User: Fold this.
Amino acid sequence: MKIGDIFERRQRGELTFQSIMELTLNNLEKDELLHAFLYKRPPEELMKEAQQADALWDQGIRKPLQGIPVAIKDNICVEGLPCTCGSKILENYVAPYDATVVKKLKEAGAIIVGKTNLDEFAMGSSTENSAFGPTRNPLDTNLVPGGSSGGSAAAVAAGMSLLALGSDTGGSVRQPAAFTGIVGFKPSYGAISRYGLVAFASSLDQIGIFAANTMDALLGAFVLFGKDPMDSTSTEIPIGPEPSQHNVRRIGVIKELSSLGLQPDVERVYTQFLNTLAKQYELVEVSIPHWEEALAAYYFVAPAEASANLARYDGVRYGSTVEANTYWQSVRMARSLFGDEVKRRILLGTFALSAGYKDAMYDKAQALRQWLIYEFNEAFRTVDIIVSPTTPNLPFPIGAVSDPVEMYKCDLFTIPANLAYLPAISVPAGFTGNLPVGAQFIAPRMQDYKLLSFAASLEVR
Assistant:
């Protein structure tokens, strides 16, 4: 049920926000199997807030997300709730303040259901790297839900919340959205404040939105967009067109993707999706020559920034307090709490920044990033929006992928938008059997509303 439909039915007296919360609480019983949440707020608190939302509605007070259950990825601060980042090193940390996005959600009347599971410090593509156990895909519990925001994706897909927030550094909102058959939106860099998001890679991180449909994602973005004095990288996003007036005519199909090895079932569904698009829009081949190399560049840039951001977790200033005779003993003991994937990326990033290697690795990766930005700008001279598959593969069984490089390839199609600071959205493209396939749309920077309006128009057709 769309959020707009809920408000219409509430206006007609056909339901209440308490009944919506009761349904949410019933669905939350699925979490014993799915493990989408690391922390759920007590049912009595949730019902009390739903009652308050009903009381305000009856008084004539209307808010954009009034009474709507929302889940928050557990690397985003919610005052008084745990913020573990899926890591043992933050197992006992309780956030002392609300992230800007959480503050905006509360002001808009949303009800925070709880904190969702994630790959440790958002490093992963399957939510198997959580120190507290993996999340399962609601469509098939033997499969992963994607990552790193797999808990948020599973929460929306299973009806345990109507919206959810995740973070997207290289595809961590769009990829799990594709794996669970829902919508995942990553904004332009700076469109949504990152204040209160635990940093992974600061030039890439963005808070994104999960929703069951694009109109709900558009509503969530409307609430969350805006410049924040607490985040110097944030900026205002120009208000865009209505879904019926998005003015998208030409859609770019990336030439280089034909050689990147899509799984046959993904390619078949994606081709059918393109054929459907071609009935309404002009499809134009465009070239992004460095698309494939973006994956390699990302895995120098992101780990380098992670090695700097995670250096603070020394068991003294940040992270679990570890008693030791010396400072360096406490550092070693505290950092032993990091999982294997976090250690791997910190080591890779430290190596990429080390003397004698920075020029050959990190600086070259940054140069390739600039080429990628240029290539996107050139493509957008001839097309309005670019389309691609969201992922090269279908959801895979838990434990099936042990090679880190194979896991990294899950983000082959999502990473370029992060490196180029562009808005992107994953929408359901179809199914092969009972498994979903996602399609990704990418727009020029700051044209987030145009992208969302276009995606919403596809649902109407």
